[in-house]
Each structure stands twice: as structure tokens, then as C-alpha cells.
Design a protein that fits this description.
The complex is a heterodimer of chains A (about 450) and B (about 300). Chain A has about 450 residues and is of the alpha/beta class. Chain A folds into two domains: about 240 residues, Response regulator (Rossmann fold); about 180 residues, Rossmann fold (3-Layer(aba) Sandwich). Chain A has 16 helices and 14 strands. In chain A, helix 2 crosses helix 12, helix 3 packs parallel to helix 4 and helix 13 crosses helix 14. Chain A is globular, with a radius of gyration of 23 Å. In chain B, strands 1-2 form a two-stranded antiparallel sheet. Chain B has a domain of about 200 residues. The N and C termini of chain B lie far apart (about 55 Å). With about 300 residues, chain B is an all-alpha fold. Classes of the chains: A alpha/beta (about 450), B mainly alpha (about 300). The interface between A and B is large, with 41 and 43 residues.
Chain lengths: ~450, ~300
């Protein structure tokens, strides 16, 4: 019995010492929870490219490889300890995951989230558990317009979906009015993202091209439907030459394969609001002459941004993974750079001492920071919602580079495509985009 | 409604119906003979799509004749039908035939979840795109709209599968033994029919059909995680409408759903998803056993 007790004591002592060492180690790091789709339909187009962007930018930050203004090691001098986990499984599961990451794993902050559904589910919980949370990709404006109107811990480091669809409307109306003489039609997945995208686009079109009418019937196929024969027939029969679509991932890839086989892209011009997510992967199979977006200046639009920071990212990413970085890669890296900016600034404001979470929040609220592809301004929702410029162009295959590129690019400033601070997206669009400044 | 639109709805409906039939017929064959609602059918579809897409990508890179792609699809399905037939039927189901059918559904659901992870282990999360055969057969203009011949060919493939199954069941000794087993398992056994062998062969055929559905669909879709889940839900809807275990039921169920969905897309797109499950709900209310449920022998 004594021997058993002795062994137990040794075991307990070992566990305690390991825990102490681990505790000491984690005190010198910043523990960052990073949800992204590692499995399921969201993984290939968004989750995995996002994870790769995370791995690269954290490597750069932890090794001090990044060019200025991020050429110091870690966040406020402490290395990032990433905890990358799967966003799949729906909102309820992600709420539990967030609680676990905070209460069991003791993360200092969370950077990530792709699905608007997940963001809507965790928004209030992030405030409740008081964890600094930087949402990176999800587009629903509801996060700050309905769910968390007075945020403290919650931020989003890229523009929400409204800016993207407003930019799309402005682009087609300005650059290709001749295509709009028979109106326009929508093909969007039948869930929040698809419906919100169509709503924002059609509302914006009322302002920028008031004489142009949408088709009476819009297509809203089921998410992950995979079969689009009937929809393609309906689009081929429809009069409008312009099709708005917020399709993404496998649905977009399947649609492109089936539409290519029926010559749809030769008869219609598509506005693919997040089409860039599959453009690199499809290569030559991606149709040329289509208008594509990235919800900002990311991926394909960032290729030509000649700054040391972006050049480092492009070069290192292509070297590490063998293909170019797409929009989710940039968007996640942008979130982590937002965290670096805030921690470093908070430390400086704190007299060089490691900052508290409240000090980090204060540093990020309303901040303007340099990202890989331009500047991020935390301009909306009490300084918690970012705006960036929005770029639009037309796809063309670059034989020399051997990859799809964009031409006829128009850059919309954030003030041109986003509502002013304190104004909700839908009323802003319905009210004629009052206060928009397009230079 | 003009006749052109009617014709287009019919063609679109037939294409979608053939897709539904291809993904549901294997499920209904197994259900009819073994009285099992086989959830792993979705995995067979996914394995068929993944394996076929992988081989097709290598095949296209090698620059070999395009027609060989169709041979690859059939061989892939045969291979998977045999392998999974043996693994799932001999390795799992044979231990459960005496159990309640709910237990068997749960067991196949568990196997389905395991196989989903096996897919991830083998192929990872990246999608596979093997669209070359889609362009191979060209286009046909019907009512001034271009239709790709690959999807149209699925109508003929489904008809061929239905005809072979009908012939196999009605005109061959094996088919007659199969019908005897469907009618009364115990009596068939007592008459000397090797029910164990029949079960294994049926499961292999059902698995082959599931894998063939996936293999033939591979060029038209982006093969990626989750495709098996989507398919199994649709296949269940078709099987419920047609009647559990009825091949004509699967055929008619697919046609009803396919044409109704195509009509919805063209006439009132917001009803596209609703229409499938509305038909299922109506059938369940009016004829809960499905439109063509096989007659059940009354045992005394």
C-alpha cells in the first residue's frame, strides 16, 4: 500500500512539474485559437488555403522574418502558440468549441471563422466569455448590425458582404452598361449568404442603374446541390446577359464544369462575387471574360501590390505550397496581422510592458493598420468592423505566368462601397447609398 | 406554357431523374433483398467518384484515348462493388441479420461515418476535378438550347441499368432465386437456395451500382468531402417515394422528382427544394409504403 502511495506521489509530482513547466512556457507565448474549415465542403476553397496563410504568417511573425512594419518577433515580443481547429459541425458545436478553447485551453485570443452561420452563432458568446475575437472571413453584416451592437471583445478585420456586392454593381454599371440592356439575373445558393448577396446586389443596382430591371425569376439552388442542368437551361433561356452569383467552393467548381460543357459562359457574363476562391485551382478551366471579386483587394488582385510585405508573402507562399495565395489565405493572414499590430501598439503604449487584453482592445479599436494588400481601417461599429478597398476586374489567362489574372481592374475606396459608420447596410442601400464618396 | 419550354423541362427532368435513379437504385436493390436501409451507400457513391476522378486525372495526363474513360468508370465500380461488398456484408452485416432492423441501420450509419474518415485519410480535403470526359461527347441542340451529351448519356445509362436489372430479375435463374428470397427468406433457404451467397452477391451488385453512380458523376462535379452525405439524403427520398426495395419504384420515383424539380426551376425557382420533399410528404400521407412497394407475404 505504501509503495502504491509512493508511486502515486511521484506521479502527481511529475504531473505537477510538467504542468508548471507548461504553464511557464505558455506564459511566454500568446495562445491563439484559430478556427477554420479543416473538413467538409468549406475546407478546399476556404479552410485549407486559410490554414496555409495562417501557418506562413505565424512562421514569419515568430521567426521575425516579416518586413517592416512587422519586423519584430512575436506579438508584443511573445511568440504565437497556434491552436488550429476545425470549424465544421455547425453553430452549436462551434459555440462549445469556443467555450472549450477559452475555459479549458486558456487561449488569449481567437482569430478566424469563415462561415457567416458560425459568426452569427459565436458573436454573443465571444462577448460573454470575454475573449478577444477577430473574425476574418465571414461576411454577414448582422454580426455588428443586429447581434452585437456594442462590441468590446469582438472585431472583424475585413469588410462585410455589403461592400462587395455594392462594388460589383458599381463595376458592371460603369464598365459594361451595354451588357445590362436586357436586365440581370441571379444564381445564388439558397441560404443566408446567397440570399443576402442577391439582396445587396439588386438593391445597389437600383441606385447605380435605376433603369435596369432584374429578371422576374431568380435561381436559388440548394447549397451543395451539385447538379445544375435545369438552372443552366433556365439561364440560357433567360433574356439578361448578366448573371450575379455568390457561388463558392465545390458548388462553383461543379457549376463551371457543367456550364462550360454547355457553352453558358460564351452567352452570358457572370459576376462571381467570390469566384477567385476557385480560379487558381481550376486554372484554364476557369472561364475567361468573367467579372470576379474577392471581397476586397486579395488573392489575384494582390499579385501586383508591390510592397515588401506583400512581396514576401507572395514569394514565400508560392515557394512553400507551390501555387499562388487565394483570397482566404490573405484574409486570415490579415486577421493575424491585425492582432500583431494591436499587441505591438498596446505594448508601446504600455511603456514596453506586455499589455493586458483591455489594452490590446483599445489599441485595435478604430485603428488603421497596414496589411498585406493595402490598409485596413477599423472604421465601422465603434471601431470594431474593418473596411478596405474593393477591387473588381475581368478574368484573363496569362500564358506567360501560366495562371489566371485580372484585367480592367477598378479600385473602389471603402467610402464608396460601404455604409458610413452608424448606418445599417440595408437601409443605406434602400436610401440610395447616402454619404457614399466615390471620388 | 410553350412546347419548347415543356420539352426543355422534360429533358432537364430526365437528366436529373437519371442521376437520381443511378444513386438510388443500388440502395433499393439491397433494401429489397436484405431488408436493410444501407447508409454506406453514400460512401460507395463517394468512393466511386474519388477513385474514378483520381484515375481519370492520371489517364488524361497520360494523353490516352478519351473513350477509355468510360471503361475506367465501369472497372472502378466493379472493383469497389467487390471489395466493399465483401468488407461490409461479410465483415459487418452478416453478424447483424438476426438483429432488429434499426440496429442494422445504426451499424451502417456507423460504418458510413468511418468510411467518410477513410476518404479523408486517403484523398484529403482537396477537391478532384476530372472534367475531360464531359467535353468528350460534345453538345446537342434541343429547342435551340445546347445540352451536353455526357449528361444526356446518363439517361441511356439509367435505362440500360434498369433494363439489365429487369432482365436479370425476371429472366435468369439467379433473379428467380433472388425473388424467392425477397418473398420469403426462410422458405427459400429450406428449398435449398444459398441465401448467404445471394446476400453477398446482392450487396456487391448494390455497391457496384452506388459506385457506378459516383464514377459516372465524377466528371460533372467537384469531387470533395461531403458528397456522399448529399447523395444519401436524396436517394432516401427517392426510395421512400418509390417504395422501399422496388426497382420500378426507384425508376418512377426518380422520374416524378426529376421532372417536378425541373419544372420548379423553370417556372417557380423558389420551390426547387420544396417540391422534392413535398412529393415525399404527399406519398407518405397517401401511400406510406411508397408508390410501388413490393407486396408482402402474409405469414400464418
Amino acid at each position: 500500500m505504501k509503495r502504491v502511495q509512493g508511486r502515486t506521489a511521484v506521479l502527481l509530482a511529475s504531473v505537477a512539474s510538467v504542468a508548471l513547466v507548461a504553464g511557464a512556457a505558455s506564459a511566454q507565448t500568446v495562445k491563439m485559437g484559430i478556427p477554420t474549415f479543416l473538413t467538409g465542403a468549406g475546407a478546399p476553397a476556404f479552410g485549407i488555403p486559410a490554414k496555409e496563410g495562417v501557418e506562413l504568417i505565424i512562421r514569419g511573425i515568430n521567426n521575425g522574418e516579416l518586413p517592416a512594419p512587422y519586423n519584430s518577433v512575436g506579438l508584443a515580443g511573445r511568440k504565437i502558440e497556434p491552436l488550429i481547429y476545425d470549424e465544421a459541425g455547425g453553430g452549436t458545436k462551434q459555440v462549445t468549441e469556443l467555450r472549450n478553447k477559452v475555459q479549458k485551453d486558456g487561449v488569449d485570443l481567437v482569430v478566424g471563422y469563415i462561415s457567416s452561420g458560425t459568426c452569427a452563432a459565436v458573436a454573443r458568446v465571444a462577448e460573454e466569455v470575454k475573449v478577444l475575437t477577430l473574425m476574418t472571413v465571414c461576411g454577414t453584416p448582422r454580426v455588428f448590425e443586429e447581434l452585437v451592437k456594442k462590441p468590446k471583445y469582438l472585431f472583424r478585420t475585413m469588410s462585410h458582404g455589403t461592400g462587395n456586392n455594392t462594388g460589383a454593381a458599381r463595376y458592371i454599371a460603369a464598365k459594361h452598361p451595354e451588357l445590362l440592356k436586357d436586365g440581370f439575373i441571379g444564381l445564388n445558393q439558397n441560404y443566408a449568404w446567397g440570399q443576402d448577396s442577391w439582396r445587396d446586389f439588386s438593391l445597389a443596382m437600383k441606385i447605380v442603374a435605376p433603369d435596369v430591371k432584374p429578371a422576374r425569376k431568380q435561381q436559388f439552388p440548394k447549397l451543395f446541390s451539385g447538379q445544375y442542368g435545369s438552372e443552366i437551361s433556365a439561364l440560357l433561356r433567360a433574356k439578361p446577359k448578366v448573371v450575379h452569383s455568390s457561388f463558392w467552393g465545390g458548388d462553383l467548381e461543379a457549376f463551371i464544369a457543367q456550364a462550360n460543357a454547355r457553352g453558358l459562359f460564351k452567352r452570358k457574363t457572370f459576376i462571381l462575387t467570390v469566384g477567385e476562391t476557385v480560379a487558381y485551382r481550376l486554372g484554364r478551366k476557369f472561364p475567361e471574360g468573367q467579372i470576379i471579386g474577392t471581397r476586397g483587394p486579395y488573392g489575384m488582385y494582390a499579385v501586383g501590390i508591390d510592397t515588401p510585405l506583400n512581396n514576401w508573402f507572395q514569394k514565400e507562399y508560392r515557394k512553400t505550397y507551390g501555387y499562388p495565395p487565394a483570397q482566404p489565405t490573405y484574409q486570415y493572414a490579415q486577421g493575424i496581422l491585425g492582432a500583431k499590430y494591436a499587441y505591438d501598439k498596446a505594448m508601446k503604449d504600455n511603456g514596453g510592458k506586455f499589455p493586458t487584453t483591455d489594452q490590446v482592445i483599445k489599441a485595435l479599436e478604430g485603428a488603421t493598420y497596414t496589411s498585406l494588400a493595402g490598409t485596413v481601417r477599423m472604421a465601422l461599429s465603434n471601431g470594431h468592423q474593418a473596411v478596405t478597398e474593393d477591387r473588381w476586374g475581368v478574368t484573363v489567362w496569362d500564358e506567360k505566368k501560366g495562371e489566371m489574372v485580372v484585367k480592367d481592374v477598378v479600385v473602389f475606396q471603402p467610402e464608396c462601397v460601404n455604409p458610413p459608420d452608424g448606418v445599417l447596410s440595408v437601409p443605406w442601400l434602400e436610401g440610395g447609398m447616402q454619404g457614399a464618396k466615390c471620388g | 406554357m410553350d412546347t419548347e419550354l415543356l420539352l426543355i423541362i422534360l429533358i432537364d427532368g430526365l437528366v436529373y431523374a437519371s442521376y437520381l435513379f443511378m444513386v438510388s437504385v443500388g440502395l433499393t436493390v439491397i433494401c429489397g433483398v436484405q431488408k436493410i436501409l444501407n447508409v454506406t451507400h453514400g460512401s460507395l457513391y463517394a468512393f466511386g467518384a474519388y477513385l474514378c476522378a483520381t484515375i481519370l486525372i492520371f489517364y488524361a495526363e497520360a494523353g490516352w484515348p478519351g473513350a477509355g474513360a468510360f471503361v475506367i468508370m465501369v472497372l472502378t465500380a466493379i472493383f469497389l462493388g467487390i471489395v466493399f461488398g465483401i468488407i461490409i456484408e461479410r465483415g459487418l452485416l452478416r453478424f447483424l441479420y438476426a438483429e432488429d432492423e434499426h440496429i442494422i441501420v445504426l451499424a451502417t450509419f456507423a460504418a458510413f461515418l468511418i468510411l467518410e474518415d477513410v476518404l479523408l485519410l486517403i484523398w484529403g480535403t482537396n477537391p478532384y476535378i476530372a472534367a475531360e470526359p464531359l467535353a468528350l461527347l460534345g453538345q446537342t441542340d434541343i429547342a435551340e438550347l445546347p445540352f451536353d451529351n455526357y449528361n444526356l448519356s446518363m439517361i441511356f445509362l439509367s435505362a440500360l441499368v434498369a433494363a439489365i436489372l429487369w432482365y436479370g430479375l425476371r429472366r435468369t435463374t439467379f433473379g428467380k432465386m433472388l425473388l424467392a428470397v425477397i418473398y420469403d427468406r426462410e422458405l427459400s433457404q429450406s428449398m435449398g437456395i444459398n441465401v448467404t451467397k445471394i446476400f453477398l452477391l446482392t450487396f456487391m451488385v448494390g455497391s457496384f451500382l452506388g459506385a457506378l453512380g459516383g464514377a459516372y458523376q465524377a466528371p460533372a462535379i467537384s469531387v470533395q468531402p461531403g458528397i456522399g452525405v448529399e447523395v444519401i439524403v436524396l436517394a432516401f427520398a427517392v426510395v421512400v417515394i418509390g417504395g422501399m426495395g422496388s426497382i420500378p419504384g426507384a425508376l418512377i420515383g426518380s422520374l416524378v422528382v426529376g421532372v417536378a424539380r425541373a419544372a420548379a426551376v423553370h417556372l417557380e425557382p423558389v420551390l426547387e427544394l420544396f417540391v422534392i420533399y413535398m412529393i415525399m410528404a404527399i406519398v407518405l400521407i397517401v401511400r406510406p409504403q411508397g408508390l410501388f412497394a413490393p407486396a408482402k407475404a402474409r405469414k400464418i
